[in-house]
Write a structure and sequence with these properties.
Elements (H helix, E strand, L loop, with lengths): L23 E2 L2 E2 L29 H21 L7 E5 L3 H12 L4 E5 L6 H7 L3 E3 L11 E4 L4 H9 L5
Parallel strand pairs: 3-4, 3-6, 4-5
Antiparallel strand pairs: 1-2
Helix pairs in contact: 1-2
């Protein structure tokens, strides 16, 4: 049975599937991560990685919701399968973290804790559905059901794991 789903090989060489680069700067070949180049004025990509953006969307907002937001949106929804009534903690409130907050709210999480070292991110987190904001731990030692580390800072991975409940 053909499901219509196609798997495309992921290349970590920094080159396109045909081993070429579609980018250069002053004659020097540039490499692009995951077979995709996103931060350039013009680029050529494999059609399988292309998503058309509505032209009415401000490019600054389109950039914001592109990679980081959508990847973690899918991770929280399709991989972690956040459940209604659950608690979630999100480490880092950039585009990636806001994507997690958004889907956690959509799926009915009742406690969404945003953790960031920047207090100015509270307002943005709340706009996406965050219910609590902290710069330190807020689970009274009990832990949360789901925890997402969204900064890429190694030591926070341990903090993120330690914030979850032992089931």
């Amino acid at each position: 049975m053909d499901t219509g789903i196609r798997a495309y090989p992921l290349s970590l060489t920094g080159l396109m599937p045909d081993n070429t680069s579609r980018m250069s700067c002053r004659g020097q070949r540039l490499y692009h991560p995951l077979s995709c180049a996103t931060w350039s004025e013009y680029t050529v990509i494999d059609v399988n990685y292309l998503v058309k953006v509505d032209p009415s969307i401000n490019p600054a907002h389109g950039s914001f919701i592109s990679c980081g937001f959508s990847i973690c949106y899918g991770a929280a929804w399709k991989e972690a399968k956040v459940e209604s009534g659950s608690s979630v903690v999100v480490f880092g409130l950039g585009a990636v973290g806001l994507g997690v907050i958004s889907v956690a709210k959509m799926l009915g999480a009742t406690k969404i804790i945003g953790i960031d070292i920047n207090d100015m991110k509270r307002e943005k987190g709340e706009a996406f559905g965050m219910t609590h904001f902290i710069n330190s731990k807020l689970t009274d030692g009990l832990g949360v059901n789901f925890s997402f580390e969204c900064t890429g800072v190694g030591p926070l991975l341990t903090e993120s794991l330690e914030a979850t409940k032992v089931v």
